[in-house]
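Changelog note: in this version the structure field was regenerated for every chain. One regenerated record is shown below for reference.
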Amino acid sequence: MNDFSELERELKKLRPVQPSAELISRVGSALANSGEGTAKVIRPEQFRINWLGLGLGLAAAATFLIFARVDFHPNERTKQTIASATPSLQQKAAALPNYQATGLTQVVYSKRDEGLVFPAGAEGPSRRVRTAKREMLQWRDRHSGAQLAVSYPTEEVTLIPVSGQ
């Protein structure tokens, strides 16, 4: 009929051959001798975790992180208030009775837009603009004609409110 069905019947008839007595004796003697060879092998100790050391190390690291944390959002008691005011030209001129203010020059070196910021207490976002410039004040003595000039760098940060409409 079908070659596969004949092949299947023949395969079902097959049975494993019984091992010979000689093979059984050789396997038995090899197993008996194997116990002697393993006694000479140096086995490494099992990998063990020192839980006490690991726990103490993690506790020390957590303590360090708690004490060394950095506060990126300062509150009112840690915030430092910095205020500066440049005296006006008239106030400086009043301190020098014979000198008359002759000029004020402001040279802008760089002006950069630092993007949107959200200042505390403001209703909406503001654009921060940082300006670096050099100011030069000049005075002239009325009687002798001598001139006095003072030059200093300044940096100004301006917050411009931005409306979303």
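Spot check on this record: The two ends are 89 Å apart (CA to CA). The helical segments are 3-13, 21-38, 51-67, 89-95.
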